[in-house]
Design a protein that fits this description.
With 137 residues, the protein is mainly α. The protein has four helices and no strands. It has one domain (2-103). The structure holds zinc ion.
């Protein structure tokens, strides 16, 4: 009986966590991705919520508040949702990376990875940038 109640509570938490994501999904479909950056922020928030929710139920399980069946079912739901959100974040970031690169410091000539402001060496391949303009005191 108590596991039914905890399942109900968890379901409510899931709904609460994914609600902004679902609302946003409906809204953005009309706009057509015009607010890409705001969307990524929302997605990241949803991802963080999901990840902390997973930690919460892991804790509940360790405390004996959840049965193994409930735990694995709920965790799978969270994880699937988190994977979905992560994929969407990747898609959004991939679509925006071109515009972001031009507003940043460009890309490494060797490995083509984006380089960040103030970097003197590539974080990916170690290539030294000709940053003569930036090294000066
Ligand atoms: Zn590189």
């Amino acid at each position: 009986m108590s596991s039914v109640i905890s399942l109900l509570i968890i379901t409510l938490i899931i709904l609460y966590v994914i609600r902004p994501y679902l609302q946003k999904k409906a809204g953005v479909a009309e706009i057509g991705g015009a607010e890409g950056n705001g969307r990524i922020v929302d997605l990241r928030e949803t991802r963080d919520n999901l990840l902390s929710a997973i930690k919460d139920i892991e804790f509940d399980y360790e405390m004996g508040k959840l049965s193994p069946e409930d735990f694995s079912e709920i965790k799978t739901q969270y994880r699937d949702k988190a994977i979905e959100v992560l994929k969407e974040i990747e898609m959004q970031e991939g679509g925006n990376s071109k515009t972001r690169q031009s507003s940043m410091e460009g890309v490494c000539e060797v490995c083509k990875n984006p380089r960040k402001k103030g970097d003197r060496f590539c974080r990916h391949c170690g290539n030294q940038f000709n940053a003569s303009k930036r090294i000066k005191p």
